[in-house]
Structure prediction request, 327 residues.
Amino acid sequence: MPKSFSDRIRSLAVTPFNISESNPNEIARLQLENQRLRSQIDHAYEWVLFDQRLGEQFEVLKGQQDFSQKRARHLRELLLGQLSSIPAQVIYRDPSSWSSSLWVNVGEESNDAIGSCVIEKNSPVLSDGALVGVVDYVGKKQARVRLITDSGLSPSVRVNRGATPNRELAHLLQSLVSQLEKRDDIFPLNEEKQQVLSQLRSLKEYCGSTHWDDGYFAKGEVHGSSAPFWRSRGPILKGIGFNYDFSDEEKAKLSSKDEKAAPIIKEGDLLVTSGLDGVFPMGLRVGIVSSIDPLTEGSYSYQIEVRPAASRLNDLQTVFILPALSE
Prediction:
């Protein structure tokens, strides 16, 4: 059958429906309603965290007076695009293609409701502020998302070392401090708790300070392995073609032939979208470099393994869909 016809059939198969109305047992109905309410609360919580994260990034942007005009413009465009995003709930994930795609509960009717075409083919999809995939089919009430762990999706990325990953670390430290402040059962003594919190706050302030500069190094592509059949134990992305022997407008500080000052890529580096693939905007977090294969004889580029930046990739419940890049 033609792919367009089979996609329409699949979209009908994952149309949301209400099970509770057909359940005659009142207790079971109430339990189901309670579960649904909890899911809606989690959905709203993710939405609040997303807005809070955007607010923090806007504050950082305003506070960096020496931020280059070009990078400030790209970051502002990225944040404005995220403000126009639509939250969506995951409604179906086929075990046979668990690491390749999922379905969400928004579609053409959602675009009509807001009067703007946000959900369309090639719309980037985020979770925790990091890239998780792209929309590759839009139905009336649902859409299919192609995940970054699918082997057929290859976003163009580059190494970002400095301000951006340090701000990300500062955000994670702040979340950890907020959680630890509410827990008295972890520390036997209050003095010990206050000492740990003080050290974490100092580290958070150091990482979040404005004296860091962004450094851009190796460029390449990453893709998934599409491991099917239920959940993969650890989604890992493969990276190919990472080098920086060719200069570009980002003006990286060195090439692969000058690694005494700093390597063009190293374990722990943050990978962000470069915007060179024409699908994803520049600056979206993609993953963290977990290992680097040594250069083989005659090779000029590195192959790497990458851990996705989005946490809980196997347990996605709420995602945010950005408008597709305009042509």
User: Anything to note?
Assistant: Confidence is low (pLDDT under 50) at residues 17-22, 253-259. Residues 163-208 form one domain. The helical segments are 3-13, 26-63, 69-83, 108-114, 163-181, 190-208. The radius of gyration is 22 Å.
